[in-house]
Write a structure and sequence with these properties.
The structure is a homodimer.
Chain A: E1 2-10, E2 14-21, E3 26-33, H1 40-56, E4 61-70, H2 95-102, E5 107-111, H3 112-123, E6 132-137, E7 141-147, E8 150-151, H4 182-186, H5 188-199, H6 216-224, H7 228-252, E9 256-260, H8 267-281, E10 290-293, H9 300-312, E11 320-321, H10 322-325
Parallel strand pairs in A: 1-4, 4-5, 6-9, 9-10
Antiparallel strand pairs in A: 1-2, 2-3, 4-11, 6-7, 7-8
Pfam families (chains A, B): ROK
InterPro entries (chains A, B): ATPase_NBD, ROK, ROK_cs
Family (chains A, B): Belongs to the ROK (NagC/XylR) family.
Chain lengths: ~325, ~325
Amino acid sequence: MHQIAIGIDLGGTQVRAGLIDKHGTIVARMEEPTEAQAGPERVLSQIHSLTERLLAATKSSVVVGIGVSTPGPIDTVSGIAKDIPTLSGFADFPLKAELQKRFAFPVSLENDGIAAAIGEWQFGAGRGLENLVYVTVSTGIGGGVVADGRVVRGRKGMAAHIGHMSVEPNGALCPCGNHGCFEAYGSGTAFTLRARTRAIGCEETTLGKNGSEIHARDVFVSARNGDALAKRLIDEEAEILGRGFTGLIHIFSPDIVVMGGGISHEFESLQPGIQAYIGQWAMPAFKDVKVVRAALGQNSGLVGSAALAFLAKRPEADTFALAAYN
Amino acid sequence: MHQIAIGIDLGGTQVRAGLIDKHGTIVARMEEPTEAQAGPERVLSQIHSLTERLLAATKSSVVVGIGVSTPGPIDTVSGIAKDIPTLSGFADFPLKAELQKRFAFPVSLENDGIAAAIGEWQFGAGRGLENLVYVTVSTGIGGGVVADGRVVRGRKGMAAHIGHMSVEPNGALCPCGNHGCFEAYGSGTAFTLRARTRAIGCEETTLGKNGSEIHARDVFVSARNGDALAKRLIDEEAEILGRGFTGLIHIFSPDIVVMGGGISHEFESLQPGIQAYIGQWAMPAFKDVKVVRAALGQNSGLVGSAALAFLAKRPEADTFALAAYN
């Protein structure tokens, strides 16, 4: 019987569940909106129910375990969530223990940026490499790092909160409460906000002129149509990301930087600017480091959390047959 | 016979050599000014001669190896120095191979920040910890990282060039050629330059009023005597370092941050401000991370490079008796 792992990508807006084989292929996948305000009991039920439905439709597989990616920072060593800003009621909540109660398979827990990095490392853009920095540029900025062929976890498994390095002293307010973080400048949210602000009264753009709210995607579409402001906004975003990535390249010395998250859908528009910035400002020994797009798209975290289950499984460990679950 | 390792801390101004036992104790130590302009042949002779003199004075020890810390970024995997800004002629120079030719013991090579981090981890302030960030604040800013009980080396062993994360877009010129790096603001050089600039025409200070050039030490002395500008300069330095360290804490999730380098001689003056900044701006899960002073002082790199030799030595590996050397 072939082995599969369950991957869960628990986010503030969607909870995704997948059955993933040891080649990283998604055998089955389901998602639904996270009942983020309903409290942990309800969210755990969602995870359990999604998993049950996936497994019910899958025959003759051996489940090696379940990996769960959660918004951080969460202490994945103790498994206790102190506070998850995007999910109500996860205050001092023993997430790992509560998950383990509900499943007969071993549960692995990972901060979401690290889980996505593992997905890209094991099955995506970083396959076969020893060193990579994964950066998700989305509502916020998060990440995960593989160095010397090993996942960097740090104290309590909370490493790679790379959105919260300071890039501007006393700068823009960041959702974390601090000012001037990389996230406060480089995130999709910050990019969209800049577009909305700068479009007001700007003669060189059609952005926002039809009265509807500007979204990140609009800026990229307008730029392709030659809109001057839109092109400038994209250049600026590339510079902000390029500057941040250059710092991360000096800090981690990765083989590549993998960019994921919503903004990476427009990777082609951003990549030349980002790469030019790195080429210009990285120290000579680091200039050749390439930025590549996440190969698994929005599934980096889902596949990565399943990969956790495979990685956690030792050859001598028991596997759990579906029979044990039903 | 007890085992010793040879540690070499090759710097742009001094080359230090030490015999270190497996407890991290410096059994013997010598140093001399680096003949930085004389080319690699001469510098290698200095290393060889210092080592020979140390070993000649030491009886009945088994040398397990020699560890060499060099200014970076240097590719410690290939062992080839592309360019060492502070040492002339090390262009495409096969440093490791040339060192190995001169010694009968196995040679280990490490970027200086990483070597110092290893010293503090194995024998200093980070003893017994799994996760630490070491930061040297001196002429420049460098560092090294231990995560999950392992040294973070990255591609070509060049990780942890933490002085070159951007902290101010298009900011002050950094010795690396980029603008706005952490080093360009937080280093001892930057601190001294700020003091000299700000003292000019300032009524609230005695700094520089006697006509002699201001050095970093003078600022700390003046601050202890109540000098208003000196106190402000130290507060600002603590804020710059605190902001940078907060970023590193989010990036690596260390158990502690270890501060070394020349400026750490005045650690007591800086620590309260640095720690207050971290307490204020780190995300809740990271607020409790402490900054401590390097325990080995200027010997972090020397002891760390020797520790490399012990770490590199496998139980099954041969040891090299002094007889083999002489």
